[in-house]
UniProtKB/TrEMBL annotation:
Keywords: NAD, Nucleotide-binding, Oxidoreductase. The active site is at K80. Pfam families: ELFV_dehydrog (PF00208), ELFV_dehydrog_N (PF02812). This is Glu/Leu/Phe/Val dehydrogenase. It comes from Pacificispira spongiicola.
Length: 357
């Protein structure tokens, strides 16, 4: 298993492995960049096929967090951690406390939060051994409404760009997944005059959307064929793939789900078909922005004002895409890299030895 020569290695600052025989903890923490500040990123617990798969995942995810936090205007760099194991059968409170000690060994350069396979309750356990944790249950915040608001603002920007519309009246949106984020997004879209088509595996959520939002319900697979302007994936990752992209009638993709592109090349396929893609990690950053603001002095208005800036960031991305003749998913990465390079240059200047002044 190689680190520096791994295809997923992209000048990561630190990659640390930790094993604890007493609790069975096997974990990796990866700090991609601390240029913007301490690296914030979730802890994923997953039964990886092998150690190499865990390493690839943590490298890829921590790099993604650098870009996400930079474009969300947060004073945070990008990091991530993985615990190798089955979250349902292997996890214990003692293991989580040991994970907290591992996080703490970074002295504040890594801040952990929940991710797939970990919960706010786990973060509360981790908080017993480190202060460098966010999203702890006792704080009592749910970031999902913040995420939904950010998706709404980004979707509005995409509609302005692709359809030239200044509002969402009569805009047809297909929402896939009516969970914590999807339902709140659907509610906002309905209030703004959008016409909804929805799907979910949860019959109660569908009945509620029909009743409260006048939504049209379609089958799980039929959502890709819906005659709509916007496809909003809010359930699963990798729904933009070789099978679905040719079927889409929508001219915009804008939703909350993580990792919507099955592979990076699918971003190009969308552009080839003239479909405007609002990059997922920019659109769904409301959750991490919410986490940044959480705490005893939580100010909801200031938090939502910060999240609302996702609309402006999305417009910057579309402008950059046009200027450089590239698809938006590439433009977003370029904007983030420019921000990092500018911050790095500023730091170099500040660190210049006195003799060189
Ligand atoms: P959730 O689990 O509350 O909701 C997911 C919904 O999708 C559920 O209602 C579920 O029944 C439905 N679903 C599952 N399989 C489906 C299928 N095949 N077709 C249609 N619907 C299906 O999750 P959430 O918190 O609303 O998050 C939704 C997405 O947004 C996830 O991809 C998540 O990673 C991403 N995200 C969430 C947040 C947040 O703040 N919650 C932040 C960033 C990204």
């Amino acid at each position: 298993m190689s680190v520096f020569s791994s295809p997923s290695f992209d000048e990561h600052e630190d990659v640390a492995f930790h094993y604890d025989g007493e609790t069975g903890l096997k974990a990796i923490i990866s700090l991609h960049s601390t240029v913007m500040g301490p690296a914030l990123g979730g802890c994923r617990m997953w039964a990886y096929d092998d150690d190499a798969a865990a390493l690839t995942d943590v490298l890829r995810l921590s790099r993604g967090m650098t870009f996400k936090n930079a474009l969300a205007d947060l004073p945070w760099g990008g990091g991530k951690s993985v615990i190798i194991g089955n979250a349902k059968t292997d996890k214990t409170p003692a293991m989580m406390r040991e994970m907290g000690r591992f996080v703490d060994s970074f002295g504040g350069r890594y801040i952990v939060a929940e991710d797939v396979g970990t919960t706010p309750e786990d973060m509360a356990e981790i908080a017993k051994t480190t202060r460098n944790v966010r999203g702890v249950k006792s704080v009592g915040f749910d970031p999902s409404p913040g995420t939904a608001y950010g998706v709404f603002k980004g979707l509005e920007a995409a509609v302005g760009e692709a359809l030239g519309a200044s509002d969402l009246k009569g805009v047809r949106v297909a929402v896939q997944g009516l969970g914590h984020v999807g339902y709140d997004l659907a509610r906002r879209l309905h209030a703004a005059g959008a016409v909804l088509t929805v799907t979910d595996i949860d019959a109660a959520a569908l009945a509620r959307a029909e009743r409260e939002l006048g939504a049209t319900v379609v089958g799980l697979d039929a959502i890709y064929d819906a005659d709509v302007d916007v496809y909003a994936p809010c359930a699963l990752g990798a729904t933009l793939n070789d099978d679905t992209i040719p079927r889409l009638k929508a001219s915009i993709v804008a939703g909350a789900a993580n990792n919507q592109l099955a592979e990076t090349r699918h971003g190009d396929r969308l552009a080839d078909r003239g479909i405007l893609y609002a990059p997922d990690y920019v659109l769904n950053a409301g959750g991490v922005i919410h986490i940044y603001h959480e705490g005893p002095d939580f100010d909801r208005d200031a938090t939502f004002a910060h999240i609302g800036r996702i609309g402006g960031t999305m417009r910057d991305i579309f402008r950059r895409a046009k200027d450089d003749g590239i698809p938006p998913h590439i433009a977003a990465d370029r904007l983030a890299k420019d921000k990092l390079a500018a911050a790095k240059a500023g730091q170099r200047k500040a660190n210049r030895p006195l003799a060189a002044e």
